[in-house]
Write a structure and sequence with these properties.
mainly beta, 5-stranded antiparallel β-sheet, two-stranded antiparallel ribbon, 1 helix, 7 strands, about 30% strand, globular
Length: about 120
């Protein structure tokens, strides 16, 4: 999991801008229907999995009665490969069962990369 630092600098007596909900330039480069490789927030012991992004969720920070809830940006997603669901269920006791129970939530910070679609190889004549 990457750690991101926000560097603020005071210029000419002005106050630095407040951190935004999207602190990274790559935060909005994914769209619905993309297949991405994600890591688990549980740690390095859980393997990376492929998911299809379904719906983007954005929540701003909220003030609670006893606790201030932080905001988050993420995706509702579904697993795409049955063999990955089997590995997660059998080795790590994560209750995914293909094809019915495969919905999950993926934070933007857990997305590693977008997976390119496989191209068909042309046959040489």
């Amino acid at each position: 999991m990457a750690v991101h630092l926000v560097v603020t600098q005071k210029v000419g007596g002005s106050t630095p801008p407040a951190p935004e909900l999207y602190p990274h330039s790559w935060a909005v480069m994914y769209k619905e229907g993309d297949i991405v490789l994600v890591c688990s927030p549980a740690g390095a012991g859980v393997p990376h999995i492929h998911v299809k992004l379904v719906k983007r969720l954005e929540r701003k920070p909220q003030k609670g009665r006893n606790f201030d809830w932080p905001g988050y940006v993420g995706w509702e997603a579904v697993l795409t490969k049955p063999e990955e669901a089997d590995i997660l269920r059998k080795k790590h006791s994560i209750p995914f069962k293909f094809p019915n129970d495969i919905e999950t939530f993926v934070a933007d910070s857990d997305i590693i990369k977008k997976v390119n679609k496989k191209r068909k190889k042309r046959k040489k004549k």
